[in-house]
Amino acid sequence: MKLAISCQLDYEIEQNTPLILMLRPRSGSGQWIIKEEYLLEPSVPVSEYTDLYGNLCQRLFTPQGSFTIKTSAVVEVTEQIDVDFSANFVPVQELPDESLIYLLPSRYCESDKMGNLVTTIVKDTQTGYEQVETIRQWIYENIRYEYGYSNASTSAQNTSEGRVGVCRDFSHLGVALCRSINIPARFVVGYLHELKPMDLHAWFEAYLGGRWYTFDATQTEPKGNRVVLAYGRDAADVALATQFGNMELVSMFVNVEQAQE
User: Fold this and answer.
1) Same domain, 67 and 33
2) Domain Transglutaminase-like, which positions (predicted)?
3) pTM for this model (two decimals)
4) Which end of the chain is more exposed for a tag (fewer CB within 10 A), N or C?
């Protein structure tokens, strides 16, 4: 399927402020960027670099006053995500070097504190894909999805104790539980077609059988039609906007729809 995605951020800025954005998807596994547009109003110089996780980052110096960022793209995506219960657990000594960072505890994913909980969750399952799917299903069934109970400092441990959160929290918990049983897991942010209410979305991926698989604990069943914006250890690595001064986000608009052929 071809998806038309768009995002608009409107800011009020007290004074010129450095800003790093992460709003450009890149072609890769499961997605191909057909065309895209990136507009800044008023226009300012922008430079771009690739971060440690392979994400495209835009660096700029914002002007004082009203400032708007508009991004849009048409992306060819897969309509279904791969499900493979034969995907095996990969022993740590056989993991590729670049996956090892996703085994470690991180700011929002305290995997070193999840051992007792994960043992209870996966005690009767086979290693590998079945373990991660059991974790995903446990989160879906035991964590209540609701706005207003978590914030920017809520961690996986907080969510496991409070049993409430949003997609960010569900994904942090999935990542932390996977890492606690030595399965590399990474946090993903992007777009999901037909998400309700429409917004940018978060899910997680686990490394099994020599590749990454997608898991989304907010959904009842595997669902494709996703556009990845960024990967990281947790939400700290994939902030869509990182500001170094006083800026107020006045409004944000996100849209995902099937592109017109």
Assistant:
1) yes
2) 159-219
3) 0.96
4) C
Residue pair 118/180 in contact by the 8 Å Cβ criterion? yes
Residue 115, helix vs strand vs coil: helix
The predicted pLDDT at position 70 comes to: 98
* Residue 228 falls inside a structural domain: no
Confidence of residue 260 (pLDDT cuts 50, 70, 90): confident
Domain around 33: 2-78+240-258
In a shared domain, residues 70 and 104: no
CA distance 54 to 28: 11
CA–CA separation, 52 and 114 (whole Å): 26
Q: Looking at this protein, which amino acid is placed at residue 5?
A: I
User: Between the CA atoms of 200, 79, 210 and 185, what dihedral angle is there, to the nearest 10 degrees?
Assistant: 20
Q: How big is the chain, counted in residues?
A: 261
Contact assessment for residue 40 and residue 60, using Cβ atoms and an 8 Å cutoff:
yes
Same domain, 212 and 101: yes
In a domain, residue 214? The reply is yes
How many domains are there within the chain? Answer: 2
- Report the interhelical angle of 129-142 vs 115-122 (nearest 10°): 100
